[in-house]
Amino acid sequence: MKVKVHFSTFVFGLLLIFLGFVKELFSIFLVVCVHETGHVLAAKKLKVEVLEVNIYPFGGVAFLDPTVFIRPDLEILIALAGPFFNIFFAFLSELFSQIFDIRLDYFIKANLIMAFFNLLPGLPLDGGRILKSFLSYFLSLRSAILVSTYGTYLISFSLLWVSFKDISQVSRNVLYTFLAVLLVIAANKEKKMSAFLQMRNLYRKKVEFYKKGTMAVHHLAVSEKAKLKDIIKNFMPSKYHVIIILDSNLREKYRMTESEFFEKALEYGLNSCIGDIL
């Protein structure tokens, strides 16, 4: 498993030092480690390989085995594990401080803030991943990512609103503004990856089909004039798709499997109409 520290984490650390939060920096580093340990342990328990972990100021982003894209329940459990570990360690720290009379107030507070902030419904936060996975049962993966991205915009706007509401809190406002911008950048990156995730999802469907010999099928009826980029928005992660092309009289003209669809998409581009490539 590769562990990478995103450049924004170094910038965030320098900001904390510049603003006088040197002691807090060490606690935040430990809290992020606790958070990511929860994700990694949960993934291993569920037998999902963690390929890479990128460390951000608000936590880490774990790149998991593609299985999670057709098993949303696994991604929900793995996403919940990070905040759960933070809450668990906050409880242990409070117990430890009571027994040994040691002040761990900031570490306890930092764990709770990390947990509840990550549960907010916006990508790439854990709450956004939970929302995306839940919505993927009913929507296409692309639409689920888009809705979760809008959640990120709302969170970022709220952080900026708090920052500008009271300009006297300079240190807090600088950190809030930095996090707001970083969240939007990270969410837009996830949104751009949605087409790639669809392709990787198809590969996992093939693997699962070869293992089990069966797979649930979802039929889509489309007109000849429908563009490939509009059709792909309706693809659901948990099912294999058969596209039925209808003529102007709503009569079946042709059928295309999901595998054929992606072959045509790579050859002709997503802006092509499905009727023109048959």
TrEMBL record:
Pfam families: Peptidase_M50. Its cofactor is Zn(2+). It is a multi-pass membrane protein. The chain crosses the membrane at residues 12-34, 76-100, 106-123, 144-164, 170-187. Keywords: Hydrolase, Membrane, Metal-binding, Metalloprotease, Protease, Transmembrane, Transmembrane helix, Zinc. Residues 25-93, 107-137 form the Peptidase M50 domain. GO terms for biological process: proteolysis. One of its GO terms (cellular component) is membrane. Its main location: membrane. It comes from the Bacteria. It is found in: Membrane. GO terms for molecular function: metal ion binding; metallopeptidase activity. Belongs to the peptidase M50B family. This is Peptidase. It comes from Caldanaerobacter subterraneus. The lineage of its organism: Bacteria, Bacillati, Bacillota, Clostridia, Thermoanaerobacterales.
